[in-house]
Amino acid sequence: MTLRNDRLLKALLGEQVDVTPVWMMRQAGRYLPEYRNTRKQAGDFLSLCKSPQLACEVTMQPLRRYPFDAAILFSDILTIPDAMGQGLYFSEGEGPKFRNVIRTAADVEQLPEVNIADELSYVTDAVSVIRKELNGSVPLIGFSGSPWTLATYMIEGGGSKDFRIAKQFMYDNPEAMHLLLDKLASAVTDYLNAQILAGAQAVQIFDTWGGILSSRAYQNFSLVYMNKIITNLKKENEGRQVPVILFTKNGGQWLESIADSGCQAVGLDWTTEIGDARSRIGDRVALQGNMDPSILYASPAVIREEVATILQSFGQGNGHVFNLGHGITPEVNPDNVAHFVEAVHELSQPYHN
Ligand code: CP3
After folding, report:
1. More exposed terminus of the chain, fewer Cβ within 10 Å: N or C?
2. At a CB cut-off of 8 Å and minimum separation 6, what does 40 contact?
3. What is the model's pTM?
4. Domain for residue 271, yes or no?
5. What angle (nearest 5°) sits at the alpha carbon of residue 256, between those of residues 255 and 257?
C-alpha cells in the first residue's frame, strides 16, 4: 500500500521533505476528552490497551483533530513485564504497580521467556487493526521500553523518585542485573519485530530512566542492551526501511554514543539545545524533538515563538522530526496542540528549500 504522507519516514532517514513532520509523545491521552470517554468505556487503562478495537479508536483520536504526520500505537511499555507474570495494575492517580516484584537473583532466574504470539497478541492485533484504519494516510510508529527502564519498574514494583531499590540491585547483584537485562533485551527484540511484521513502519525505544545512571552505568546497563536490540531488528518491511528512534530522557551528554547505537534517529528531551546536538553528531542520524511540554500551557503566540526558535536552532536541511521533549501532560488545553502542529508545518517550510 502506498503511503500518502511519508514525511516522517523520510525525515527519520535524513531525506528531503517539504515541511518538518510532527507528532507528539502521548498524543493519545488524557488531555483529550474523547480519550477519557473511551477509557471509561473500557473500564480502565489496561483494559483499553488489551482491546485492539478500543486501542485503535484512541490511536486515531488525535489524528482526527490535528494534521499529525504519524500515528503511535496505543499501548504501554509495561506490557512485557505483565506478560512475564508480574501482574501489572494501574491504581488511579498512582501510576503503574506490580503485584510481583524482582528482588533476588532467583527471581530473575525464574522469570519466564515471553512468547509474544501467545501473550502479547493483543498488541500485534492492535497494530493490524490500526494499519487498516489508517488506510495509508500516515505511518504507524510501534514502540517498546528499553531493558533498563523496564527493569527499574520490575524491581521497584512501580514508579520511583530515587530508584533506590533498582540501583542497589544493580550495584549489589550486577550479574543478576545483567541476566535480567539480557532476558528483557531478547523479549523487546521479539516484541518489536512482531510489531514490525504486523505493520509498524518505524519503532521507538523509550529509555525513560537511562538518564538517572552514571555515564559508566549507562553504557554498561542501558546502552549496550539497546545496541543489541537494534542489531537484531528487522531492517525492512513492505519494501521500506523501518527506522529506529532511540529516546533516552536526560541522555544529552551521551549523544555521540547514542548516535553510534545503530539507530536512525535520536530522540531529545528539552534540556539539550537541538542546534548543539546537531553540531555534535552532524547528519549521521536524524534528531527528534524537543520542545518543553510545559510550553503547551502558554499562549498560542508563545508556542509559535518557541517552535520558530527550535526550527531555527536545528537550521536548514532535513533530518528533523518535531516532537515534544517528553509526553504531553493531561492538563494541556487541546486547542494549544492545534497551534503547535500548525506552527511546525507553516514555519518549517523555508528550511526545506
Ligand atoms: O505516545 C502515545 O500516545 C502512545 C501511548 C503510550 C502510553 N505509554 C500510554 C499511556 C506510550 C508510548 C507509553 C510509554 C510509557 N509508559 C513510558 C515511556 C514513555 C514515557 O512517558 O517516558 C512509560 C515510562 C510508561 C509507564 C507508564 N504508563 C506510566 C509511568 C504511567 C502513568 C503515567 C501518568 O501520567 O499517570 C502509564 C500510564 C499511561 N500510559 C497513560 C497513557 C495514556 C495514562 C493512563 C490513564 O489513562 O490513566
Report:
1. C
2. none
3. 0.97
4. yes
5. 95
Checking if the pLDDT of 91 tops 90, the result is: no
The tally of domains found in the chain comes to 1
Which tens digit of pLDDT belongs to each residue from 215-233? 999 999 999 999 999 999 9
Ligand 1 centroid to residue 204 C-alpha, Å: 14
Among 24, 37, 41, 76, residue to substitute to test ligand 1 (most atoms within 8 Å of Cβ): 76
Q: What are phi and psi of 35, to 5 degrees?
A: -65, -45
Bond into 290 cis (ω within 30): yes
The answer to the question of residue 25 being in a domain is yes
pLDDT tens profile 92-138: 778 999 999 999 999 999 999 999 999 999 999 999 999 999 999 99
Please say if the pLDDT value at position 192 is more than 90.
yes
| The C-alpha cell that represents 238 in the structure block | 513492505
The answer to whether residue 236 is domain-embedded is yes
Q: 126-144 burial string, b = 16+ CB within 10 Å, else e?
A: bbebbbebbeeebbbbbbb
Catalytic residues: 26, 30, 39, 76, 153
Supply the CATH number for residue 160's domain.
Answer: 3.20.20.210
Distance 326 CA to ligand 1 centre (A): 11
Average pLDDT estimate for 227-242 = 98
116 located within any domain: yes
CA nearest 78: which of 56, 107, 49, 57?
Answer: 49
Residue 353 confidence class, pLDDT cut points 50, 70, 90: confident
158 residue type, one letter: G
| Boundaries of domain holding 17 | 7-352
